[in-house]
Specification:
The chain has 204 residues and is an all-alpha fold. It is 67% helix and 2% strand. α4 (60-73) runs parallel beside α8 and α7 crosses α9 (145-168).
Amino acid sequence: MSKELVDSPLDPRVRRTRRWLQKALVDLLREKSFSEISITDMTKQADLARVTFYQHFESKEALLLTLVSDFFAQMYQVLDAAKLKRFIELGNYDDVQEMQLGRWIDPAETNHILIALRHIGPAVRQLAVVSFLNALSQIGYQIADQEAEALATYHVSGVLSLLEIGLNSDLAVSQEEISLLTLRFMRILIQDGLESGSIRRPIG
């Protein structure tokens, strides 16, 4: 992850430098694989000193994570909470289809997501786990502490597998179908948790 700086993370200089490094990585990924890219390559591409890189990131993997962090941090937050809750409780597919699930994955992010899953899978998985738990909390579901991490990890493992299959084009699965399968998977998991008592329904 990014190091804490003396400057505020909102400092325009910090944001600008990080954007330059992100752009350098994106540009280099068009020419070579992530494994072949060095920190020196990125700082030369960004016209920055090598020491500047380490003032912002601990490693090239930490920089790569920033390219996909928004997607995974907001994996479920892009969905309408009320419609998602109705879908989980009633299985109303019209609600989730109205949420334009095909926009869930920005085509420009596709290659970066695949690279991140390949090289920093555990960090990506943790972002997705936190996002899943936050989504359940926002719509009122509560999971027993001892169950939360296990259930979230189980769900996220399936989601990321679907995502990799779709992005690799191993099967003719559209982005909308991937998203809908993900929500169906979520609903099955929650319904099972409600039956076993490990997940509690929202109050009211």
